[in-house]
Sequence to fold (224 residues):
Amino acid sequence: MLSDTNLAAILLTLKLATIVTVLLLLIGTPIAWWLARTRSWWKGPISAVVALPIVLPPSVLGFYLLIAMGPNGPVGQFTQSLGLGTLPFTFPGLVVASVFYSMPFVVQPIQNAFEALGERPLEAAATLRAGPLDRFFTVAVPLAKPGFLTASVLGFAHTVGEFGVVLMIGGNIPGVTRVVSVQIYDHVEALEYAEAHLLAGIMLVFSFLVLLAMYLTNPTRARQ
Fold:
């Protein structure tokens, strides 16, 4: 049976993952479209920046985000000037950090889907006098649907499984920043292995079901 603290951590984690996934789809889609279409020299550096969280230790990313969003950092000074205070150790701070940390898991699948379209569907739409925005929303986005599905699943799942970044930015405040991964860590520290087993088992089953759903709903992956 889930305790109130475990249930609160699960609900907070789901809330965080949902908000971050929606934001990443809104932010990541234009980035992915530009990376898929551009021939600019900037494509390489920007692609590297987007993919950086894949290889960068979470503690390093969390440290620099903590500095940037702290009272003396540029982001912190900006939010303070707006009367919003600072973002570290708050739920909005977790959202910002998670967006950065899960960015490549959303941008890259969408970018790959856009690149796989080729030029013919867009050229055909152009011959029918469809404008750039019309071609994007009525041709590119529907044809890239598998990429959006994969991006949504990976972005959500990766946010749920975060630990290092959320601990650095959010700390361990019950009901505010204590997500499932941090709650498991607390249980292990307190030698509460039964509680840790319960939450870890839920995470294991969740991760398996997410990957299974992704492979079953993506026909390209299913054929491999």
